[in-house]
Design brief:
- Helix content is 5%, strand content 44%.
- The chain has 519 residues and is mainly beta.
- It folds into 5 domains: 24-118, Immunoglobulin-like (Sandwich), CATH 2.60.40; 123-207, Immunoglobulin-like (Sandwich), CATH 2.60.40; 213-306, Sandwich (Immunoglobulin-like), CATH 2.60.40.10; 315-398, Immunoglobulin-like (Sandwich), CATH 2.60.40; 405-499, Immunoglobulin-like (Sandwich).
- A hairpin with an 8-residue loop joins β20 and β21.
- It is elongated, with a radius of gyration of 46 Å.
Length: 519
Protein backbone atom coordinates (compact mmCIF):
# COMPACT_ATOMS: atom_id res chain seq x y z
CA UNK A 1 0.00 0.00 0.00
CA UNK A 2 1.51 3.28 -1.09
CA UNK A 3 1.87 6.33 1.15
CA UNK A 4 -1.06 8.29 -0.34
CA UNK A 5 -3.42 5.39 0.27
CA UNK A 6 -2.30 5.19 3.89
CA UNK A 7 -2.99 8.89 4.44
CA UNK A 8 -6.43 8.53 2.89
CA UNK A 9 -7.40 5.59 5.09
CA UNK A 10 -6.08 7.34 8.19
CA UNK A 11 -8.10 10.44 7.35
CA UNK A 12 -11.28 8.39 6.89
CA UNK A 13 -10.68 6.60 10.17
CA UNK A 14 -10.17 9.81 12.08
CA UNK A 15 -13.23 11.44 10.50
CA UNK A 16 -15.44 8.45 11.32
CA UNK A 17 -14.15 8.39 14.87
CA UNK A 18 -14.84 12.11 15.29
CA UNK A 19 -18.47 11.81 14.17
CA UNK A 20 -19.01 8.74 16.33
CA UNK A 21 -17.89 10.69 19.44
CA UNK A 22 -14.85 8.55 20.02
CA UNK A 23 -13.06 9.96 23.06
CA UNK A 24 -9.75 8.75 21.75
CA UNK A 25 -9.91 11.20 18.86
CA UNK A 26 -10.66 14.06 21.25
CA UNK A 27 -7.74 12.86 23.31
CA UNK A 28 -5.47 13.00 20.31
CA UNK A 29 -6.35 16.57 19.35
CA UNK A 30 -7.28 18.39 22.62
CA UNK A 31 -5.20 19.11 25.72
CA UNK A 32 -7.22 18.53 28.92
CA UNK A 33 -7.04 20.75 31.99
CA UNK A 34 -6.25 19.70 35.52
CA UNK A 35 -8.80 20.69 38.15
CA UNK A 36 -7.68 21.57 41.68
CA UNK A 37 -9.98 21.90 44.69
CA UNK A 38 -10.38 23.97 46.83
CA UNK A 39 -9.09 27.12 45.17
CA UNK A 40 -9.16 29.28 48.33
CA UNK A 41 -8.74 28.36 51.95
CA UNK A 42 -7.71 29.96 55.23
CA UNK A 43 -5.77 27.62 57.44
CA UNK A 44 -6.75 27.83 61.09
CA UNK A 45 -3.88 28.16 63.49
CA UNK A 46 -2.19 24.73 63.55
CA UNK A 47 -4.60 23.41 60.90
CA UNK A 48 -4.28 21.83 57.45
CA UNK A 49 -6.27 21.36 54.25
CA UNK A 50 -6.60 18.53 51.73
CA UNK A 51 -6.04 19.46 48.07
CA UNK A 52 -7.30 17.13 45.34
CA UNK A 53 -6.38 17.14 41.64
CA UNK A 54 -8.18 15.49 38.73
CA UNK A 55 -7.98 15.54 34.91
CA UNK A 56 -10.95 15.78 32.55
CA UNK A 57 -11.62 12.89 30.21
CA UNK A 58 -10.18 9.40 30.13
CA UNK A 59 -6.63 8.35 30.13
CA UNK A 60 -3.89 7.47 32.51
CA UNK A 61 -2.47 10.59 34.11
CA UNK A 62 0.23 11.00 36.68
CA UNK A 63 -0.48 14.01 38.90
CA UNK A 64 2.34 16.52 39.36
CA UNK A 65 2.25 19.13 42.14
CA UNK A 66 3.78 22.64 42.34
CA UNK A 67 3.97 25.36 45.00
CA UNK A 68 5.11 28.95 45.40
CA UNK A 69 5.85 30.58 48.73
CA UNK A 70 4.26 33.94 47.85
CA UNK A 71 2.71 35.99 45.08
CA UNK A 72 5.31 36.64 42.39
CA UNK A 73 7.76 33.98 43.54
CA UNK A 74 8.88 31.07 41.35
CA UNK A 75 6.83 27.89 41.30
CA UNK A 76 8.73 24.81 42.50
CA UNK A 77 7.81 21.16 41.87
CA UNK A 78 6.73 19.09 44.87
CA UNK A 79 8.38 15.88 43.79
CA UNK A 80 7.56 14.08 47.00
CA UNK A 81 3.85 14.19 46.08
CA UNK A 82 4.22 13.03 42.45
CA UNK A 83 1.48 10.60 41.45
CA UNK A 84 -0.82 11.47 44.38
CA UNK A 85 -4.31 12.71 43.53
CA UNK A 86 -4.74 14.30 46.97
CA UNK A 87 -2.26 15.85 49.37
CA UNK A 88 -2.49 17.46 52.81
CA UNK A 89 -0.78 20.82 53.25
CA UNK A 90 -0.33 22.86 56.42
CA UNK A 91 1.74 25.72 55.02
CA UNK A 92 0.48 28.87 53.34
CA UNK A 93 1.32 29.23 49.66
CA UNK A 94 0.12 29.02 46.09
CA UNK A 95 -0.49 25.45 44.94
CA UNK A 96 -1.22 24.01 41.49
CA UNK A 97 -1.16 20.68 39.68
CA UNK A 98 -1.17 19.11 36.20
CA UNK A 99 -1.26 15.67 34.63
CA UNK A 100 1.38 13.75 32.64
CA UNK A 101 0.55 10.86 30.34
CA UNK A 102 2.65 7.74 29.85
CA UNK A 103 3.79 9.17 26.54
CA UNK A 104 5.07 12.32 28.27
CA UNK A 105 2.19 14.55 27.18
CA UNK A 106 1.05 17.16 29.78
CA UNK A 107 -2.31 18.71 30.62
CA UNK A 108 -2.83 22.38 31.17
CA UNK A 109 -1.98 23.59 34.65
CA UNK A 110 -4.84 23.92 37.11
CA UNK A 111 -5.88 27.22 38.63
CA UNK A 112 -3.80 28.11 41.64
CA UNK A 113 -5.15 27.30 45.07
CA UNK A 114 -4.50 30.25 47.39
CA UNK A 115 -3.91 28.88 50.86
CA UNK A 116 -3.54 31.50 53.56
CA UNK A 117 -2.60 30.99 57.17
CA UNK A 118 -4.17 32.67 60.19
CA UNK A 119 -2.21 35.05 62.36
CA UNK A 120 -2.79 34.98 66.13
CA UNK A 121 -4.30 38.47 65.89
CA UNK A 122 -7.96 39.47 66.08
CA UNK A 123 -8.97 42.63 64.26
CA UNK A 124 -10.96 45.28 66.14
CA UNK A 125 -13.95 46.95 64.47
CA UNK A 126 -15.34 50.30 65.65
CA UNK A 127 -18.18 52.44 64.37
CA UNK A 128 -18.57 56.21 64.35
CA UNK A 129 -20.72 57.85 65.39
CA UNK A 130 -21.38 55.21 68.02
CA UNK A 131 -25.14 55.79 68.22
CA UNK A 132 -27.72 53.38 69.53
CA UNK A 133 -29.79 53.76 66.37
CA UNK A 134 -29.03 54.90 62.85
CA UNK A 135 -31.86 56.41 60.84
CA UNK A 136 -32.66 56.52 57.14
CA UNK A 137 -30.48 59.03 55.23
CA UNK A 138 -27.84 59.26 58.00
CA UNK A 139 -24.17 58.30 57.54
CA UNK A 140 -21.77 56.12 59.53
CA UNK A 141 -18.15 54.97 59.30
CA UNK A 142 -16.67 51.59 60.27
CA UNK A 143 -12.94 51.36 61.05
CA UNK A 144 -10.76 48.24 61.21
CA UNK A 145 -7.73 48.22 63.55
CA UNK A 146 -5.00 45.54 63.64
CA UNK A 147 -3.39 45.36 67.10
CA UNK A 148 0.39 45.50 66.72
CA UNK A 149 0.08 45.88 62.97
CA UNK A 150 1.41 49.42 62.74
CA UNK A 151 3.93 49.98 59.97
CA UNK A 152 2.72 46.94 58.02
CA UNK A 153 0.92 47.17 54.69
CA UNK A 154 -2.53 45.68 55.14
CA UNK A 155 -5.54 45.26 52.95
CA UNK A 156 -8.93 44.55 54.49
CA UNK A 157 -11.81 42.16 54.02
CA UNK A 158 -15.30 43.23 55.07
CA UNK A 159 -18.60 41.64 55.93
CA UNK A 160 -21.53 41.53 55.03
CA UNK A 161 -20.45 39.52 52.01
CA UNK A 162 -22.40 41.64 49.52
CA UNK A 163 -19.73 44.32 49.88
CA UNK A 164 -16.52 44.25 47.87
CA UNK A 165 -14.24 42.21 50.08
CA UNK A 166 -10.87 43.73 49.19
CA UNK A 167 -10.07 47.25 50.42
CA UNK A 168 -6.69 48.90 50.91
CA UNK A 169 -7.97 51.37 53.52
CA UNK A 170 -9.18 50.47 56.96
CA UNK A 171 -12.25 52.74 56.88
CA UNK A 172 -15.55 52.50 55.06
CA UNK A 173 -18.15 55.28 55.13
CA UNK A 174 -21.77 54.75 54.19
CA UNK A 175 -23.75 57.84 53.20
CA UNK A 176 -27.50 58.36 52.90
CA UNK A 177 -28.08 54.90 54.32
CA UNK A 178 -31.14 52.75 53.57
CA UNK A 179 -32.48 49.26 54.19
CA UNK A 180 -29.69 47.68 52.11
CA UNK A 181 -27.16 48.83 54.73
CA UNK A 182 -28.66 46.66 57.48
CA UNK A 183 -26.38 43.84 58.58
CA UNK A 184 -23.71 42.46 60.91
CA UNK A 185 -20.43 44.20 60.16
CA UNK A 186 -16.97 42.57 60.56
CA UNK A 187 -13.47 43.04 59.20
CA UNK A 188 -10.10 41.31 59.09
CA UNK A 189 -6.59 42.21 58.02
CA UNK A 190 -5.08 40.71 54.89
CA UNK A 191 -1.29 40.72 54.40
CA UNK A 192 -0.10 38.62 51.48
CA UNK A 193 -0.87 35.01 52.37
CA UNK A 194 -1.66 35.78 56.01
CA UNK A 195 -5.00 36.78 57.51
CA UNK A 196 -6.00 37.95 60.95
CA UNK A 197 -9.01 36.52 62.74
CA UNK A 198 -12.34 38.17 61.96
CA UNK A 199 -13.13 41.11 64.23
CA UNK A 200 -15.95 41.58 66.66
CA UNK A 201 -19.44 41.88 65.15
CA UNK A 202 -21.21 45.26 65.09
CA UNK A 203 -24.89 44.92 64.19
CA UNK A 204 -26.32 47.85 62.23
CA UNK A 205 -30.08 48.29 61.99
CA UNK A 206 -31.45 51.16 59.94
CA UNK A 207 -34.61 52.68 61.41
CA UNK A 208 -37.33 54.82 59.91
CA UNK A 209 -36.72 58.54 59.74
CA UNK A 210 -37.52 60.03 63.13
CA UNK A 211 -40.26 62.47 64.11
CA UNK A 212 -39.83 64.22 67.47
CA UNK A 213 -42.74 64.95 69.79
CA UNK A 214 -43.32 68.55 70.88
CA UNK A 215 -45.09 69.41 74.13
CA UNK A 216 -46.10 72.86 75.35
CA UNK A 217 -46.74 74.06 78.88
CA UNK A 218 -49.11 75.58 79.70
CA UNK A 219 -51.65 74.84 76.96
CA UNK A 220 -53.78 77.87 77.93
CA UNK A 221 -52.12 81.26 78.26
CA UNK A 222 -52.39 83.26 81.45
CA UNK A 223 -51.30 86.92 81.77
CA UNK A 224 -47.54 87.30 82.20
CA UNK A 225 -46.82 83.56 82.07
CA UNK A 226 -44.05 82.17 79.88
CA UNK A 227 -44.50 79.18 77.59
CA UNK A 228 -42.07 76.24 77.66
CA UNK A 229 -41.58 74.11 74.56
CA UNK A 230 -40.07 70.64 74.98
CA UNK A 231 -38.83 68.61 72.01
CA UNK A 232 -38.74 64.92 72.90
CA UNK A 233 -36.68 62.47 70.85
CA UNK A 234 -35.21 59.00 71.27
CA UNK A 235 -31.75 59.02 72.86
CA UNK A 236 -31.54 62.84 73.18
CA UNK A 237 -27.92 62.76 74.38
CA UNK A 238 -26.62 61.19 71.15
CA UNK A 239 -25.45 64.28 69.32
CA UNK A 240 -28.77 65.98 68.64
CA UNK A 241 -29.25 69.71 68.25
CA UNK A 242 -32.70 71.26 68.07
CA UNK A 243 -34.51 73.76 65.86
CA UNK A 244 -37.60 75.70 66.98
CA UNK A 245 -40.27 77.17 64.72
CA UNK A 246 -43.53 79.06 64.81
CA UNK A 247 -46.25 77.48 62.63
CA UNK A 248 -47.96 80.00 60.35
CA UNK A 249 -51.30 79.39 58.55
CA UNK A 250 -50.73 79.30 54.81
CA UNK A 251 -53.40 79.19 52.12
CA UNK A 252 -50.91 78.06 49.46
CA UNK A 253 -49.86 74.89 51.24
CA UNK A 254 -52.00 72.00 50.04
CA UNK A 255 -50.76 68.94 51.90
CA UNK A 256 -49.82 70.61 55.18
CA UNK A 257 -51.72 73.23 57.08
CA UNK A 258 -48.74 75.43 57.99
CA UNK A 259 -45.40 76.78 56.95
CA UNK A 260 -42.66 77.23 59.53
CA UNK A 261 -40.66 80.29 60.59
CA UNK A 262 -37.54 79.88 62.72
CA UNK A 263 -37.91 81.41 66.18
CA UNK A 264 -35.28 83.89 67.46
CA UNK A 265 -32.16 81.96 68.53
CA UNK A 266 -34.05 78.81 67.58
CA UNK A 267 -31.26 77.21 65.54
CA UNK A 268 -28.96 74.37 66.66
CA UNK A 269 -29.68 74.60 70.37
CA UNK A 270 -28.24 71.87 72.53
CA UNK A 271 -31.14 71.96 74.98
CA UNK A 272 -34.42 70.14 74.49
CA UNK A 273 -36.30 73.13 75.97
CA UNK A 274 -37.16 76.52 74.51
CA UNK A 275 -38.88 79.24 76.58
CA UNK A 276 -41.13 81.90 75.06
CA UNK A 277 -42.04 85.07 76.93
CA UNK A 278 -44.60 87.71 76.08
CA UNK A 279 -46.96 85.46 74.12
CA UNK A 280 -50.50 86.94 74.34
CA UNK A 281 -52.49 85.23 71.58
CA UNK A 282 -53.13 81.71 70.34
CA UNK A 283 -50.05 80.35 68.55
CA UNK A 284 -48.66 77.11 67.11
CA UNK A 285 -45.11 75.72 67.31
CA UNK A 286 -43.07 72.84 65.88
CA UNK A 287 -39.55 71.50 66.39
CA UNK A 288 -37.12 69.20 64.64
CA UNK A 289 -33.68 67.80 65.42
CA UNK A 290 -30.40 67.42 63.54
CA UNK A 291 -27.17 65.50 64.07
CA UNK A 292 -24.14 64.20 62.19
CA UNK A 293 -21.61 65.71 59.84
CA UNK A 294 -23.92 65.20 56.86
CA UNK A 295 -26.62 67.26 58.61
CA UNK A 296 -29.30 64.64 58.95
CA UNK A 297 -32.65 66.23 59.91
CA UNK A 298 -35.64 64.52 61.45
CA UNK A 299 -39.16 65.21 60.29
CA UNK A 300 -40.86 68.24 61.77
CA UNK A 301 -42.91 67.48 64.85
CA UNK A 302 -46.66 67.81 64.69
CA UNK A 303 -47.79 71.35 65.56
CA UNK A 304 -48.64 72.04 69.18
CA UNK A 305 -50.81 74.94 70.23
CA UNK A 306 -50.85 77.47 73.02
CA UNK A 307 -54.41 78.76 73.30
CA UNK A 308 -55.66 82.11 74.49
CA UNK A 309 -59.26 82.91 75.41
CA UNK A 310 -58.74 86.65 74.93
CA UNK A 311 -60.58 88.21 72.01
CA UNK A 312 -58.33 89.61 69.31
CA UNK A 313 -59.64 92.22 66.88
CA UNK A 314 -57.72 90.85 63.90
CA UNK A 315 -59.21 87.38 64.37
CA UNK A 316 -62.05 86.21 66.60
CA UNK A 317 -64.18 83.13 67.10
CA UNK A 318 -67.77 83.55 68.26
CA UNK A 319 -70.02 80.77 69.55
CA UNK A 320 -73.77 80.64 69.02
CA UNK A 321 -76.58 81.18 68.89
CA UNK A 322 -77.84 77.78 69.98
CA UNK A 323 -80.79 76.60 67.89
CA UNK A 324 -83.15 73.67 68.39
CA UNK A 325 -84.44 70.84 66.27
CA UNK A 326 -86.67 67.92 67.13
CA UNK A 327 -84.03 65.51 68.41
CA UNK A 328 -80.89 67.62 68.77
CA UNK A 329 -79.50 71.08 69.30
CA UNK A 330 -76.76 72.67 67.27
CA UNK A 331 -74.39 75.55 67.75
CA UNK A 332 -72.58 77.63 65.14
CA UNK A 333 -68.97 78.78 65.34
CA UNK A 334 -68.12 81.86 63.27
CA UNK A 335 -64.72 83.34 62.31
CA UNK A 336 -64.41 87.09 61.82
CA UNK A 337 -61.59 89.63 61.54
CA UNK A 338 -59.23 91.43 59.21
CA UNK A 339 -59.00 88.76 56.52
CA UNK A 340 -60.86 87.55 53.44
CA UNK A 341 -60.09 83.84 53.92
CA UNK A 342 -60.77 81.79 57.07
CA UNK A 343 -60.85 78.28 58.34
CA UNK A 344 -62.06 76.73 61.57
CA UNK A 345 -59.54 74.43 63.25
CA UNK A 346 -59.96 71.89 66.01
CA UNK A 347 -57.94 69.83 68.44
CA UNK A 348 -57.95 66.85 68.51
CA UNK A 349 -58.16 66.47 64.74
CA UNK A 350 -61.03 63.99 64.59
CA UNK A 351 -63.73 66.36 63.37
CA UNK A 352 -65.96 66.05 60.33
CA UNK A 353 -64.50 67.41 57.06
CA UNK A 354 -66.74 70.45 56.78
CA UNK A 355 -65.60 71.71 60.15
CA UNK A 356 -61.83 71.77 59.85
CA UNK A 357 -58.92 72.54 57.53
CA UNK A 358 -61.10 74.03 54.76
CA UNK A 359 -60.45 77.60 53.64
CA UNK A 360 -63.58 79.71 53.07
CA UNK A 361 -63.95 83.13 51.51
CA UNK A 362 -65.50 85.61 53.93
CA UNK A 363 -66.82 84.30 57.24
CA UNK A 364 -66.10 80.66 58.04
CA UNK A 365 -68.93 78.88 59.84
CA UNK A 366 -68.80 75.52 61.57
CA UNK A 367 -71.94 73.73 62.83
CA UNK A 368 -71.75 71.34 65.79
CA UNK A 369 -74.57 68.98 66.76
CA UNK A 370 -75.41 67.39 70.10
CA UNK A 371 -75.75 63.79 69.01
CA UNK A 372 -74.77 60.42 70.41
CA UNK A 373 -71.31 60.74 68.82
CA UNK A 374 -69.00 63.15 70.62
CA UNK A 375 -66.21 63.36 68.03
CA UNK A 376 -66.87 67.10 67.74
CA UNK A 377 -65.67 67.71 71.31
CA UNK A 378 -62.45 69.72 71.50
CA UNK A 379 -60.75 73.10 71.35
CA UNK A 380 -61.79 75.30 68.42
CA UNK A 381 -60.12 78.37 66.98
CA UNK A 382 -59.95 80.30 63.70
CA UNK A 383 -57.02 80.84 61.37
CA UNK A 384 -56.81 83.51 58.70
CA UNK A 385 -54.96 83.87 55.43
CA UNK A 386 -53.28 86.89 57.00
CA UNK A 387 -51.45 84.45 59.35
CA UNK A 388 -53.57 85.19 62.44
CA UNK A 389 -54.95 82.88 65.11
CA UNK A 390 -58.17 83.75 66.93
CA UNK A 391 -59.11 83.20 70.52
CA UNK A 392 -59.74 79.53 71.37
CA UNK A 393 -62.91 77.95 72.77
CA UNK A 394 -63.12 74.55 74.45
CA UNK A 395 -66.43 72.88 73.60
CA UNK A 396 -67.87 69.66 74.97
CA UNK A 397 -71.09 68.35 73.43
CA UNK A 398 -73.13 65.83 75.36
CA UNK A 399 -76.56 64.29 74.79
CA UNK A 400 -77.85 62.95 78.09
CA UNK A 401 -81.33 62.22 76.75
CA UNK A 402 -81.70 59.50 74.12
CA UNK A 403 -85.24 58.36 74.89
CA UNK A 404 -88.40 58.98 72.86
CA UNK A 405 -89.83 62.44 72.23
CA UNK A 406 -93.53 63.36 72.29
CA UNK A 407 -94.31 65.46 69.22
CA UNK A 408 -97.29 67.83 69.60
CA UNK A 409 -98.19 71.01 67.70
CA UNK A 410 -96.78 74.06 69.45
CA UNK A 411 -99.91 76.14 68.86
CA UNK A 412 -103.39 75.32 70.24
CA UNK A 413 -105.38 73.02 67.93
CA UNK A 414 -108.90 73.83 66.77
CA UNK A 415 -111.80 71.89 68.17
CA UNK A 416 -113.33 69.43 65.67
CA UNK A 417 -110.27 69.19 63.43
CA UNK A 418 -108.08 66.19 62.68
CA UNK A 419 -104.98 66.11 64.90
CA UNK A 420 -102.10 63.64 64.85
CA UNK A 421 -99.62 63.30 67.71
CA UNK A 422 -96.50 61.16 67.32
CA UNK A 423 -93.73 59.56 69.33
CA UNK A 424 -90.23 60.13 67.91
CA UNK A 425 -88.37 56.97 68.89
CA UNK A 426 -84.88 58.37 67.98
CA UNK A 427 -83.30 54.91 68.41
CA UNK A 428 -85.65 52.48 66.73
CA UNK A 429 -85.77 48.69 67.16
CA UNK A 430 -87.65 46.02 65.24
CA UNK A 431 -91.34 45.53 66.09
CA UNK A 432 -91.67 48.46 68.50
CA UNK A 433 -94.40 48.65 71.11
CA UNK A 434 -95.33 52.27 71.81
CA UNK A 435 -97.55 53.38 74.68
CA UNK A 436 -99.34 56.77 74.76
CA UNK A 437 -100.56 58.42 77.97
CA UNK A 438 -103.10 61.23 78.45
CA UNK A 439 -102.85 62.87 81.86
CA UNK A 440 -100.84 59.80 82.99
CA UNK A 441 -103.58 57.38 81.82
CA UNK A 442 -102.71 54.74 79.20
CA UNK A 443 -104.85 55.31 76.10
CA UNK A 444 -103.01 53.36 73.36
CA UNK A 445 -100.41 50.57 73.39
CA UNK A 446 -99.47 48.92 70.08
CA UNK A 447 -96.95 49.21 67.25
CA UNK A 448 -98.28 52.54 65.99
CA UNK A 449 -96.09 55.58 66.51
CA UNK A 450 -99.00 58.02 66.03
CA UNK A 451 -101.99 58.96 68.15
CA UNK A 452 -104.76 60.30 65.90
CA UNK A 453 -107.89 62.33 66.69
CA UNK A 454 -110.45 62.45 63.86
CA UNK A 455 -112.24 65.37 65.53
CA UNK A 456 -110.39 66.64 68.55
CA UNK A 457 -112.53 67.78 71.47
CA UNK A 458 -112.05 69.83 74.58
CA UNK A 459 -111.78 66.64 76.61
CA UNK A 460 -108.65 65.71 74.63
CA UNK A 461 -106.83 68.72 76.02
CA UNK A 462 -104.11 67.92 78.52
CA UNK A 463 -100.66 66.45 79.07
CA UNK A 464 -99.34 63.71 76.75
CA UNK A 465 -96.32 61.48 76.87
CA UNK A 466 -95.16 58.27 75.22
CA UNK A 467 -93.18 55.26 76.37
CA UNK A 468 -90.93 52.97 74.34
CA UNK A 469 -88.41 50.28 75.22
CA UNK A 470 -88.56 51.14 78.92
CA UNK A 471 -87.91 54.85 78.33
CA UNK A 472 -90.48 57.58 78.79
CA UNK A 473 -90.61 60.88 76.95
CA UNK A 474 -90.97 64.24 78.65
CA UNK A 475 -94.63 65.34 78.88
CA UNK A 476 -96.06 67.85 76.42
CA UNK A 477 -99.30 69.77 76.72
CA UNK A 478 -101.90 69.97 73.93
CA UNK A 479 -104.29 72.91 74.13
CA UNK A 480 -107.67 72.80 72.32
CA UNK A 481 -109.40 76.02 71.37
CA UNK A 482 -112.88 76.71 70.07
CA UNK A 483 -113.35 76.78 66.32
CA UNK A 484 -114.84 80.33 66.57
CA UNK A 485 -112.96 82.88 68.66
CA UNK A 486 -110.60 82.31 71.53
CA UNK A 487 -111.58 79.90 74.21
CA UNK A 488 -110.42 80.03 77.75
CA UNK A 489 -108.24 77.28 79.02
CA UNK A 490 -107.69 75.79 82.38
CA UNK A 491 -104.09 76.95 81.77
CA UNK A 492 -104.06 80.70 81.20
CA UNK A 493 -100.48 80.43 79.88
CA UNK A 494 -99.76 77.75 77.28
CA UNK A 495 -96.95 75.49 78.43
CA UNK A 496 -94.21 74.57 76.03
CA UNK A 497 -92.54 71.47 77.29
CA UNK A 498 -89.24 69.98 76.53
CA UNK A 499 -88.44 68.75 73.00
CA UNK A 500 -84.91 67.72 73.90
CA UNK A 501 -82.47 68.02 76.71
CA UNK A 502 -78.98 68.98 75.67
CA UNK A 503 -75.88 69.97 77.54
CA UNK A 504 -73.26 72.17 75.93
CA UNK A 505 -70.12 72.98 77.84
CA UNK A 506 -68.14 75.94 76.52
CA UNK A 507 -64.95 76.70 78.35
CA UNK A 508 -61.90 78.86 77.91
CA UNK A 509 -59.56 79.28 80.84
CA UNK A 510 -62.49 79.31 83.29
CA UNK A 511 -65.22 76.75 82.59
CA UNK A 512 -68.84 77.81 82.28
CA UNK A 513 -71.78 76.06 80.71
CA UNK A 514 -75.22 76.45 79.20
CA UNK A 515 -78.01 74.01 80.02
CA UNK A 516 -80.76 74.28 77.43
CA UNK A 517 -84.34 73.22 78.09
CA UNK A 518 -86.39 73.79 74.97
CA UNK A 519 -89.58 75.35 76.29
Amino acid sequence: MDMSMRHTLLGLFLLASLFSGNAQVKYLFETPTAILRPTRYQLPIGGSVTLSCSVEGSGNWTILWYSAASFGSKEEPMTEYEGKKAIIVSQRGLYSCRGRSDSGRHTYNSDKAIIKDTLPITAILTIQPNWTRIYMSEAFTVRCEIPGGEGTYWSYDWRPERFTTYYTTNERTFYNVGWEDNGNYQCRGNMGLSLTEWSNVIPVTISFKLQPVLTVSPSWLSPGASVTLSCEIEYPSEGWSFYWYKAIPDLDIKEEAYKYELLPDGSETAQTLYIITGQTHTAAYVCRAQRGRNYYYTYYSKPKFVWSADLYSAASLTVGPVEQRLSFDFVRLTCKGNSTWWRVRKFPENSVPYCSNVWNLGESVCTLYTKASYSDDGVYWCESMSKQFSNAVNITLQDFYSGPLMVIPDDPVKKGTFVSLSCNLRIKKNFPSVAFYHNNKLIQNDSREELNFLAVSKSDEGSYKCQYSGKESPSRYMSVKSAVGPESSSFPVRMKVMNAVAFILVSTETSYYYHFNVN
